[in-house]
Amino acid sequence: MTSSLVLPSSLPVLEPGWVWLVGAGPGDPGLLTLHALNGLAQADTVVYDALVDDRILALAAPDAEMIHAGKRGGKPSPKQRAISNRLVDLARDGRKVVRLKGGDPFVFGRGGEEALDLVDAGIPFRVVPGITAGIGGLAYAGIPATHRDTNSAVTFVTGHGVTGDVPDGLNWQALAQGSPVLILYMALKHMGEITRRLIEGGRSPHEPTALVCSAATENQRVAVTTLADAPAIAETLDPPAIVVIGDVVRLRPALNWLGALTGTVLEADPLGNRSDREAG
Where would I find the Tetrapyrrole methylase domain in this sequence (predicted)? Predict the structure, then answer.
């Protein structure tokens, strides 16, 4: 596919000994940036995470070495230090390296950690931002992150900390009371505890909540419910998932453009509890 595309000649050259930290977006290959596609076309080594869509991997140069780095929440994965060391070794061998990460490298993607390790090792690098799932994935679910009639602020929250547990360093009461829309990454496993903390902090148990699994892929699934019922729904779903809490969820019946492509009738009725499967 890359060979049939003519990229602008002004795009940067991936030099030997460099590492590009590239965001692959939430899933759909069409959401890649030109810089990402340009890097994949030039790389002789691609180090990719488990959640990167196979259709995106297919865009790499035919002779590129493809190295699976794992990094999937809740599953066995290489240690972060081992991945960083591998990037350093590849660059020192004169390879042209693309480190391909789901979503955006700097949004809960540990791209900042890898970049700092490259700095410590004296390896030159470029950051290629990607569309983060908390925005792009919700857009594919027909849920805007912001809308002037519902919220003038949005907060991105990780559902687990370094230990894999719910982050204790967060002020959950402040989050519950201070942000009209919460977008949670990697929260499916701990949805019960997160819900408890938010409700105890003052969040309404009846607040609209949506869980979007495998966003922007052909396996996308969207479940719409309330905050109180979200833990039970979460137990029936598989990661990866994005959870959004707030009145923007009420807009889904009218803005479910992807569902409309497969026959869903768009309407602006109040929130209803349902789960549906949609083509990506």
Answer: 19-230
Active site residue 49: yes
As for how many domains the chain has, the answer is 2
**Same domain membership, residue 98 and residue 148:** no
* SS3 label, residue 267: coil
- Whether residue 124 is found in the same domain as residue 139: no
- Which tokens go with 21? 């930290």
Residue of 28, 101, 117, 186 marked active site: 186
Verify that 109 and 138 share a domain, yes or no.
no
Containing domain of residue 127, as a range?
Answer: 2-131
User: Domain of 98: which CATH number?
Assistant: 3.40.1010.10
Query: Dihedral (C-alpha) 17, 98, 156, 258: value to the nearest 10 degrees?
Result: 160
**Digits of tens for pLDDT over the chain (280 positions)?**
444 677 888 899 999 999 999 999 999 999 999 999 999 999 999 999 999 999 999 999 999 999 999 865 555 567 888 999 999 999 999 999 999 999 999 999 999 999 999 999 999 999 999 999 999 999 999 999 999 999 999 999 999 877 788 988 899 999 999 999 999 999 999 999 999 999 999 999 999 999 999 999 999 999 999 999 999 999 999 999 999 999 999 999 999 999 898 888 887 554 344 555 554 4
Q: Which of 68, 72, 85, 79 is nearest to 19 (CA)?
A: 85
Q: Residue 71 catalytic?
A: yes
Select which of 28, 49, 53, 117 is catalytic.
49
Looking at the fold, whether 174 and 273 belong to one and the same domain comes out as yes
Whole-prediction pTM = 0.89
